[in-house]
Amino acid sequence: MTTVTADFTGMVLISGGAAGIGRAIAESFLLAGAKIHVCDSSAENLDVFLAANTDATATLADVSNPAQVEQVFSDLRNRGEGLDVLINNAGVAGPTAGVEDVSIDDWDRCIAVDLNGVFYMTRQAVPMLKQNQGGSIINIASGAALFGCPLRSPYVASKWAVIGLTKTWAMELGPHNIRVNAICPGSVAGERIDAVIERDATERGLSTDEIREVYLRQSSMRTFVSPEDVANTALFLAAESGAKISGQSIAVDGHTESLTNWLD
Questions:
Q1: Which stretches does DSSP call E strand in 32-76?
Q2: Which of 68, 66, 67, 12 is nearest to 40 (CA)?
Q3: Residues 155, 186, 254, 256: which is the catalytic one?
Q4: 215 is catalytic
Q5: Who has greater pLDDT, 3 or 168?
Q6: Which of 94, 119, 208, 239 is the 20 to 30 Å CA partner of 140?
Q7: Residue ranges of the chain assigned to CATH 3.40.50.720
Q8: Fold of 11-186+227-249
């Protein structure tokens, strides 16, 4: 997948920005001329990212920890370049299990990162965006936020909540010239979906190839999307091309027909 290039010279903060979708977004914006600060919970991923992208800066942080989120914004303010775009990308896949088998700890951890983290980041970002007299917030949700997804209760709950926050914040912040949108990727090729498929296969007693075929058939185009597909959409929304787009949940998924699993 080719990364789309556009002119964008603002300051962009990306959570979970050192690997996967987050890294693809960061590098897409860097190519467009943006200034980039990322946070990530993996020191190893941050080291690799910064070695490859020497113009970027970063903070080691878990977005589910409010004190660590405060440190992210302290580091960002120390750059002295304001904030134009917040991209809430950090997330975990959560458990793959029937609702009766989901542990309380697994539920709490998924909600803490995928929902609370979005709130913690946004509440810190909004004063900076208002000071900037406008900007953009992009929440990375999921196709699971538009349907449902068996065996993924905490993940689905968090992503549906993010859609609700996207609509609410678009209404709340629109008068301040702040646009808020969500991108809802389908299954994104990479290590995370591979791990989900492996857990699903184990839960059902099937092969990973059988489960992968089920996932592929959920999309009309019979394909997974790439991190670059998501990055291209984020850049479009943040740039002048998306100047009048707000409150939207945009699927990047090859048209998901259903997340129902007909193996049950």
A1: 35-40, 57-60
A2: 68
A3: 155
A4: no
A5: 168
A6: 208
A7: 11-186+227-249
A8: Rossmann fold (3.40.50)
